[in-house]
Task: structure prediction
Amino acid sequence: MKEVIENIKKFRELKNITREELADRLEMSLSGYSKLERGEVELSVSKLYRISEILEVSVSQILDFDASQIFTMTNNQNAFGYIREQHNAYNDLYKDKYIKMLEAEVERLRNEQK
Result:
């Protein structure tokens, strides 16, 4: 159960929700919620489901949360973002060259008509 409580805390922090906000939404006192988060009181199944709704995650995500997956996803997104930026830069370069080629062709055709 200690791991589940730790996972709730991690999700709460990832979502930038304070203990006060979560306690309020659970209709609990701050001290009551703090005791829950410290593992001093038992977490009921109904409270677990309510917490999952508030945090917008499934109960199974809370039960099986692995923080390393978050960092892996973030790193992958950063890598894909870098690749996307490089691809966009390549496309911009290609577009510029294509525009110059078309301008040259327009100029050539104008000169032929004279």
User: Anything to note?
Assistant: The mean pLDDT is 79. The chain has two domains: 2-63, 68-114. The chain has six helices and no strands.
